[in-house]
Design brief:
Blueprint (H helix, E strand, L loop, with lengths): L1 H4 L3 H34 L2 E2 L7 E2 L3 H7 L2 H32 L6 H13 L2 H11 L7 H8 L14 H27 L2 H9 L4 H12 L1 H16 L3 H6 L14 H10 L4 H28 L1
Antiparallel strand pairs: 1-2
């Protein structure tokens, strides 16, 4: 107590700050850091949840990099990322750009676009699964058949299954991205647009030279957020391919689903941990790229 009285005001502020931060920091260490470190250690061991852990060194990683299923799943994961991120950003920006100009029922339309983001992913996946069913159940195939065309095997085709799952995943995240884009658009000073219109600058030039450059922080955030979401995609795939998780011939299986099956179907926790470390490394690289881009700005 005497030591505390001898502290300066700034030092007392530091003490109180750490006092209030102690519990959240402890909680974060226990919930985040310890499981992460434990998973890294487990990736060098063999464990089936029941017996004792045995040290196997790099055996799990050697098995991983010689596993053709892993490389198929690795490719699928990046297909989700490479297709999903630009398509979702382009769609959400287009909607936000035009929605920002609407004044009639603006709040209602914004809420309707945001509603899918609040919907349970499991419920949404099962509704879309119903849409994709063959005639006479599926909504899409009923419409296609009524037009005189041959119905499409959406979820039972190695070609169509991944895009069929990617579409609702993009749709579910549009609402959040639209709201963020609209916040970024509202933050741009209107004086820039007024000066451009006085100079007779076209709408396309304004979009390319003013709007998009000033939205760079927003775009960077959404690119990283969307990338992490697609790299961790699981719920849509698992629920839309319940009868055959991962789709026909693993054509839709992402890395998170492979980790789940390895851990809780095969009970090979060490191998699942090695897969988790790979996924963690990918997510870490994406996050570091975000920090680098923001620092360059």
């Amino acid at each position: 107590m005497k030591l505390y009285r001898n502290l300066s005001i700034s030092q007392k502020q530091v003490v109180w700050a750490w006092t209030f931060l102690a519990l959240p920091v402890l909680f974060y260490v226990v919930i985040r850091f310890y499981p992460t470190l434990n998973a890294i250690v487990l990736s060098f061991q063999d464990w089936n949840l029941l017996g004792a852990r045995t040290w196997v060194g790099l055996e799990n990683y050697d098995k991983l990099f010689h596993d053709p299923v892993f490389w198929k799943v690795f490719k699928n994961t990046f297909v989700y990322l490479i297709l999903g991120t630009p398509l979702s950003l382009l769609a959400s920006f287009t909607i936000a750009y035009h929605l920002d100009k609407i004044r009639f029922l603006h709040g209602t339309l914004r809420a309707l676009y945001f509603l899918p983001f609040l919907t349970s992913t499991v419920a949404m996946a099962w509704v879309w699964r119903w849409f994709y069913q063959p005639v006479p159940i599926g909504l899409f195939n009923n419409f296609i058949a009524s037009m005189g065309f041959q119905q499409i095997a959406f979820l039972n085709s190695t070609t169509n299954a991944l895009p069929a799952i990617l579409l609702p995943a993009i749709w579910a995240g549009l609402g959040f991205q639209i709201i963020i884009f609209m916040a970024g658009l509202r933050a741009i000073p209107i004086s820039y647009y007024e000066a451009a219109r006085i100079d007779g600058v076209s709408s396309w030039t304004i979009l390319r030279e003013i709007t998009v450059p000033l939205l760079k922080p927003t775009i960077v955030f959404l690119v990283v957020f969307s990338s992490i979401s697609f790299l961790r995609i699981f719920d849509q795939v698992f629920n839309m391919t319940t009868n055959n998780p991962g789709g026909p011939l693993d054509s839709t299986k992402p890395l998170v689903l492979m980790i789940y099956q390895t851990a809780f179907t095969s009970y090979d926790m060490g191998y699942a941990a090695a897969q988790t470390v790979v996924l963690f490394s990918i997510l870490l690289v994406v996050s570091l790229l975000q920090l680098r881009i923001m620092r360059d700005r």
